[in-house]
Write a structure and sequence with these properties.
The chain is α+β, with helices and mostly antiparallel strands and about 375 residues long. The protein has helices at about 15-25, 35-45, 60-70, 175-180, 200-205, 230-235, 340-345; strands spanning about 55, 80-85, 100-105, 110-115, 120-125, 130-135, 140-145, 150, 155-160, 165-175, 185-190, 225, 250, 265-275, 280-285, 290-295, 295-300, 305-310, 315, 320-325, 335-340, 350-355. Helix content is about 15%, strand content about 30%. A hairpin with a 2-residue loop joins strand 6 and strand 7. Bound molecules: fe (ii) ion.
Length: about 375
């Protein structure tokens, strides 16, 4: 290519640098890296939080959801979901910089139409029943109260309420992350509902300790349901365990197909803060959105005190110090949380300060020697 490069219209003078950079910026869509001193300074001292520590109180959320039922009588292709937008995040919709949490209401008899998207999502039922369910890639997955159901990236999903009471759940999606990456794709199914192919035990039967050899190996993006009846048993079983000095009795939902986090971009946990728990402060590079299942407490985030109660939503931005308290002497508090830690771990950027002092694995008792 023989493009003629025009000569700079200036001489080398004391103002040469200014004139040069001005020309770069205005004519050539370039900048000198030295121009962005602010960027370099902003990187000193580590990553900075994006967004503000925030609580969305349930009383407001519920009243607005009820109003939404009036102004949006039928959801159909849309979703009657209120999304929690962090007041400190601009330019994209996020509860934290990588996560979007919302609360959705599905009326009795209603169907939220089928679609799929590259965005990974999950539902955590607030008011559920056997008659409230999602169909994910043809499989019916019940949403009983406190059940967790995954709709991994690019899986078809529609939601149904065949009961006579409202259905309520938490949605969490990696929307802000995929927007930042320029990877958002969406496709409507073409009909309101998918054809039902399986009825709830197909995945769990294959995610156990054995599976049929004559079937194709499962792919990564399998829909999975975590029944509260099983999770709460573990929470009860570990009620008197040592726990963690930062998070008390905190259990991670494991993806049975991978042994890793529930979704490639989202770690889900259920956390029991026993009465009187005073957590130690810990800074993490990841961000977290919490939903309060039960109880009341306080989380101090970078010195800001967030008081929360049942069904509140809380945002803890990335790079913040968090410290949990349950000051009740009688009542426990239980939190469901979703963090973007798996994403940061995948690129080597997840860290905790101070690091969690992991307990040693229990020792296997020696086999008695028989004479
Ligand atoms: Fe969706």
């Amino acid at each position: 290519m023989n493009a003629t490069i025009p000569k700079p219209p200036f001489e080398t003078t004391a103002n040469a640098l200014e004139a040069f950079t001005s020309e770069l910026n205005t004519r050539y869509h370039m900048m000198g890296q030295w121009q962005d001193e602010g960027l370099l300074k902003s990187m000193m001292g580590g990553a900075k939080p994006v967004g503000e520590p925030t609580v969305w109180p349930w009383a407001i959320t519920e009243s607005k959801l009820l109003e939404a039922c009036d102004v949006l009588p039928e959801s159909m292709g849309a979703r009657r979901s209120l999304l929690m937008l962090n007041p400190g995040i601009t330019g994209k919709n996020g509860t934290t910089n990588n996560l979007l949490m919302g609360v959705q209401l599905v009326k009795p008899g209603e169907v939220a139409w089928a679609h799929r998207h590259s965005i990974s999502a999950l539902r955590f039922a607030i008011e559920g029943s056997r008659d409230l369910y999602s169909v994910v890639d043809g499989e019916r997955l019940a949403l009983e109260t406190n059940d967790l159901v995954l709709t991994p990236s690019w899986t078809w999903h529609d939601h149904h309420n065949e009961g006579d009471r409202r259905g309520l759940w938490i949605d969490v999606l990696d929307v802000p992350l995929l927007v930042s990456l320029g990877q958002v794709r969406f496709e409507p199914y073409g009909h309101a509902e998918q054809t039902l192919q399986r009825n709830g035990d197909y995945i769990s039967a294959r995610a156990g300790i054995v599976r049929p050899t004559w079937e194709q190996r499962p792919v990564r993006n399998y829909p999975i349901r975590y029944a509260w009846s099983a999770v709460s048993k573990e929470l009860e079983r570990l009620h008197d365990a040592a726990g963690c000095p930062f998070d008390d009795v905190n259990l991670e939902y494991v993806n049975p197909m991978t042994g890793g986090p529930a979704l490639p971009t989202m770690r889900c946990c259920v956390q029991l803060l026993r009465p009187g728990f005073e957590g130690r402060a810990q800074r993490r590079t990841s961000s977290t959105a919490y939903f309060v299942i039960e109880g009341e407490g306080t989380t101090v985030v970078d010195g800001k005190e967030l008081r929360w109660g049942p069904r509140d939503v809380i945002a803890v931005p990335n790079a913040c110090t968090r410290q949990h308290f349950n000051r009740s002497t009688r009542d426990r508090a239980v939190l469901f949380s979703v963090s973007d830690a798996p994403l940061l771990e995948a690129i080597g950027l997840y860290c905790e300060d101070p690091a969690l002092p992991l307990a040693a694995l229990p020792t296997v008792p020696a086999r008695p020697v028989r004479a």
